[in-house]
Amino acid sequence: MPHDLPDRMAAVQLTGHGGPERLIYREDVPVPRPGPGEVVIRIGAAGVNNTDINTRLGWYSKSVTGATGEEAAASAAAEDGSWTGVPLAFPRIQGADACGRIVAVGEGVEPARLGERVLVRPMQADPASSSPVACLTFGSEIDGGFAQYARVRAPEAYRVNSPLSDAELASFPCAASTAQNMLHRAAVKPGERVLVTGASGGVGSAAVQLARARGARVIAVAAAAKAEALLALGAVRTVARGTSLVAALGRSSVDVVLDVAAGPAWPELPEVLAPGGRYAVAGAIAGPVVPLDVRTLYLKDLTFLGCTWQPPEVFAALVQAIENGALQPLVARTYPLESIREAQAEFQAKTHVGKLVLLPPA
Question: 61: closest CA among 43, 48, 79?
Fold first, then answer.
């Protein structure tokens, strides 16, 4: 059907793996048109995430063994620099988080969807794969939200009814769905003791709130200066990053660990898990290579869960939690889209609590 869309748009293109100089803001990028079963969304806001920076850096390359950062990823090999291990096609429009409105629909999509306010599911089903856990990341394998317009398959655009602003809603999709998925996979129950690492970041702060909403007792690990903010989100206790968890909490003291950090402190995580405990991981910002005493794993009957692929019910449950007001948006600051380099620099400084969000030109 005909579409009243402009020919060109503002967007940030990633031109290759490397530093922030690889991010190019342009105002002459062709506006996508919807194909069969697709919609085009006018982006209202797009959040900044670790996965966007890691992909730019090539941090997912197996040649990188250090923490997230420019220096650690300097030797990344472009041929395996994406999280799937498949080379990225450049230029690529990144941006895993996006909130906006549907402004065009393709063949087979109900015209009534025009004007819907939507959140885009970041971890999308891969229609070309027969694997039940194959997925495409919005802004990685396919163009994402760092633009005025984005094209997605219609089922991946979830309608949301909320009084929150676009910037507030854009703080949720990637980070909060990651947190929701870890809770889902670990089957967190009321009364359980849940330890959350990286608790002041987007995933961690969402995990604190969502675990508390399930009736769990949450212990948050973060910088000491951020303790008050995490207690306000529902944590019953905080532990300063860098403190020995065994000394602070005791061995076998928690039922579930939700981890996005890994790194040098990782060996204590299996130690603080109680027998039969569950460890769910969806990140390794402090370093991806860690030592494991396998005897701890099997003698304590621990369950380890890698959490990337998300079944559709995870994002649907997240949208419901947003609409019910069970999740508080934490927008530390907004930037215009053209200032993406400054936004990512602040993100990597880790001095904020919550999310940084980019706003495309109106």
Answer: 79
Measured CA to CA in angstroms, residue 339 lies from 26, 286, 318, 361 at distances of: 12, 26, 29, 11
Residue 344: give the domain boundaries.
Answer: 8-171+329-359
Q: Mean pLDDT throughout 58-81?
A: 65
Neighbour tally for 345: CB within 10 Å = 13
CA of residue 226 relative to chain centroid, distance: 20
Q: How many CA atoms lie within 13 A of 134 on its CB side?
A: 10
Packing angle of the helix pair 173-186, 312-323 (nearest 10 deg) = 110
From the number of C-beta atoms within 10 Å of its C-beta (0-12, 13-18, 19+), residue 168 rates as buried
The per-residue pLDDT for range 180-210, each reduced to its tens digit, is 999 999 999 999 999 999 999 889 999 999 9
The whole-angstrom separation of Cα 75 and Cα 134 is 27
Q: Which residues pair with 25 in a beta bridge?
A: 12
Beta carbons within 8 Å of 192's beta carbon, 6+ residues apart: 216, 217, 255, 256
230 and 335 share one domain: no
Is the same domain home to 251 and 270?
yes
Give the dihedral of Cα atoms 140, 333, 165, 329; nearest 10 deg: 80
How many structural domains are present in the chain? 2
In a domain, 223, yes or no: yes
- Predicted local distance difference test score (pLDDT) of residue 193: 98
Alpha-carbon gap, residue 334 to 354, rounded angstroms: 12
With contact defined as beta carbons under 8 Å apart, do 81 and 60 qualify?
yes
Q: What is the pLDDT of residues 320-351, one digit of tens each?
A: 999 999 898 989 999 999 999 999 999 988 88
Segment 270-311, tens digit of pLDDT: 999 999 999 999 999 899 999 999 999 999 999 999 999 898
* Residue found under tokens 């008050």: 228
Q: From residue 320, give the alpha-carbon distance in Å to each of 71, 324, 325.
A: 40, 6, 9
Output the CA angle 14-18-22, nearest 5 degrees: 35
**CB distance 64 to 170 below 8 Å:** no
